[in-house]
Amino acid sequence: MKTAVLTDSTSYIPKEIRENLNIHMIPLSVIFGNETYKEEVDITADQFYEEVKHRQLPTTSQPSVGEFVELFEKLATEYDAVISIHISSGISGTFQGAVSAGNMVEGIEVYPFDSEISCMVQGFYVLKAAEMAAEGKAPDEIMAQLDEMKKSIRAYFMVDDLSNLQRGGRLSSAQAIIGSLLQVKPLLHFENKLIVPFEKIRTRKKAMKRIVDLLGEDAKSGEPFLASIIHAKREDEAIKWKEELEAIYPNVEFSISYFGPVTGTHLGEGSMGLGWVKK
């Protein structure tokens, strides 16, 4: 059985890696006024962060069911099955779109997987699925492995500026004003598929240290982990952080990724995150 692996753009797996590992991608979009840009196709993260400095905050949209159907039908000419891994169903309808489309196509078995998370932490599932698919593993075996990974996946995000969360309706104006005055850097995480506050921390430095401590609680076992530093246009800071973390945790393999246009719309420039999973 030949199995394809599909993800959406919010896993932010670089194009060359997707091509090397035969990973297919369906994009979400950002909408500035009447202009729609498919992320990772029409607009890069850097272009997006430059654009939002001069324009009103965009809205975001998921792929249509029709786009999923078209892609699944195309994959059906070459594959017997597709593992379709997507951004948390609690914050986007993308996963449900894959489910609906999967019930509409013939000639290919669709296995939708709700990552219950986003960004490169979602990408960990995708990379594992691609590795197993290349080895010829059956879809059920791949899905079982993804469910097993879910037990050890962790991710924490620090928002530098509360205004995007407030403007996007994720935070009340009063909370945003109070947060700004107190320099609160909310530490966020995914719980029951939703982004919720984990802790309120007063400074950026303390928030990042708290994330490192949380990694340490898991990594102290000495078991091998994969981890990704995720940034919103803070590459220099991410590189420095990676060097510091590698010196502390030799059993953790670190990479650097980013918050792209869709996630960046809600979190804003300057956000930082760290996610990890047992190898």
Automatic annotation (TrEMBL):
Short name of any one Pfam family annotated for the protein: DegV
Annotated InterPro entries: DegV, DegV_C, DegV_domain_contain
Keyword annotations from UniProtKB, A to Z: Lipid-binding
Keyword Nucleotide-binding on entry: no
Gene3D superfamilies documented for this protein: 3.30.1180.10, 3.40.50.10170
Protein name listed in UniProt: DegV family protein with EDD domain
Organism: Cytobacillus purgationiresistens
Lineage of producing organism: Bacteria, Bacillati, Bacillota, Bacilli, Bacillales
